[in-house]
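Risk register update: the risk of archive-format incompatibility is retired. Evidence:
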Amino acid sequence: MKTQLLFIIAFFTFFILFNDSTIASGLDKGSKESVESNLIVGVQSSNEGLKISSAFYLGEIKSVKGVNHLMKILREDSNPGARLMAALSLIKIEDPQGLYLVKRTAQFNSEERVRRMSDKFYYAYLINKYMEENPKEAPLFAGLIK
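Archived output:
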């Protein structure tokens, strides 16, 4: 049962991480900036649902402006769900500082669940980057991603 649950979580994680379509693709520059500023306000909210959904959408639009706010959530928030969403969004944005924080979170976070899932997010990112750089070796990873 645990194996099936882990497989399902990993499948959806890979699907979310490496889906080629993003919300930002249909936005012009002015409306993207407006959406981005509203989402940054959302991640600073005390409403947990708003904070988590705003963090998710900052990752979807690959908001570089939201990186510092997401890093603050990952470091300081008491809700593990918010921290996991911040880690996932930082991986999607691919900012070097955010990636480094996710890597360190996977190693040193006090919460076991956050540590474990951050590790999965980070290694999924590394595998995807490796496959992009070495497409001939992609069959070795068949079934893991995409």
